[in-house]
Design brief:
326 residues, alpha/beta, Quinone Oxidoreductase, Chain A, domain 1, Rossmann fold, 2 domains, seven-stranded mixed β-sheet, six-stranded parallel β-sheet, globular
């Protein structure tokens, strides 16, 4: 069996395609022949610092947080899957591989009509969006949602889900090409943040929830933009993790500022997300109301090239690694 190993902390060049031995299948797990794996910005953090998450999350040797493939075997206590089933799964690492053992509670049957490549684009972004926007921020029909980085994997999926569930959607992107994409698919009211200040562009709109991955000086601007009792949720701080804010803004408008990391969440939290995703989001995918958007597919052994593209932020939608040898 093969996998992409992080040989040491560093740039894309530290990712090497090597042999590995798959651990013994546990009774609560399914063994998957991985056909495709999603690439996420979190994988960059892991590659730069394999110890990044700490706590109960094991040190990463093989990156990758989402996979799709065929079930090869099931553990003794697994009842809802059988050999040959097509599944996708959220994993705590190890996705860049030809095979993986996964807790069955984090596996979902692939929605009807989707390929393995499309299905591999789903778990990490869908779980992240659902956990943050709908479970944490409790966004509901009729509210306004702003997602910064609307053409990222999370952005594209989040805007689609929110719009399908009756929210009013807003977004920021960094180029005319990306803005054209947002407008073509009618995903949101969007602006190019390099040309227009978002806090001015959306100040007359009712924004109740903001999903932010930028941080830095966006933070106070987000707080000022939010409607009374609005919720600001952080999932990254690409600009800065140490912003300065005016607490009066929060107090006077009764705002909630929060944030989370999905990867180190306990399994019981991820299981609850999976159950709600299956109930609320999977029907939207089956009906075609929500669609995975794949920007580019690389071979598994080309993971370094995939990371270079991810770091460029040039993609619209998801980057996928495909394993044709499984």
């Amino acid at each position: 069996m093969k996998a992409i190993h992080i040989t040491q902390a560093g740039g894309p060049e530290v990712l090497q395609y090597k042999d590995y031995e798959l651990p013994q299948l546990q009774q609560h797990e399914v063994q998957i022949a991985v056909r495709a794996a999603g690439v996420n910005r979190s994988d960059i953090l892991t590659r730069n610092n394999p110890d990044a998450y700490g706590g109960d999350t094991p040190k990463a040797q093989i990156p990758g947080l989402e996979v799709a493939g065929e079930v090869l075997a099931v553990g003794a206590s697994v009842k809802k899957f059988k050999k040959g089933d097509a599944v996708c799964a959220l994993v705590p690492g190890g996705g860049y591989a030809t095979h993986i053992n996964v807790d069955a509670r984090l596996c979902l049957s692939i929605p009807k009509g989707l390929s393995f490549v499309e299905a591999a684009a789903l778990p990490e972004v869908v779980f992240t969006v659902w956990f943050n926007v709908f479970q944490q921020a409790k966004a509901k029909e009729g509210e306004g949602l702003l997602i910064h980085g609307g053409t990222s994997g999370i952005g594209v999926m989040g805007l689609q889900i929110a719009k399908a569930l009756g929210l009013k959607t807003f977004t920021t992107v960094g180029s005319q090409e990306k803005l054209d994409f947002i407008e073509e698919y009618q995903l949101a009211k969007g602006i190019n943040y390099k040309e227009t200040a978002f806090e001015e562009a959306f100040k007359e709109d009712k924004i109740d929830v903001i999903l932010d991955m930028v941080g830095g000086d966006y933070t106070q601007k987000n707080l000022e933009l939010l409607n009374t009792k609005g919720r600001l949720i952080h999932i990254n701080g690409m600009k800065s993790l140490t912003p300065q804010i005016n607490l009066w803004t929060m107090m006077s408008k009764q705002l909630i500022l929060s944030g989370s990391l999905l990867k180190p969440q306990p399994i019981i939290v991820k299981e609850r997300i999976a159950e709600e995703v299956k109930e609320k989001v999977w029907p939207l995918l089956a009906s075609g109301q929500v669609k995975p958007i794949v920007h580019k597919v690389f071979k598994l052994e080309e993971a370094a090239k995939a990371h270079q593209l991810m770091e460029s932020s040039a993609q619209i939608g998801k980057i996928i690694l495909e394993n044709s040898a499984s």
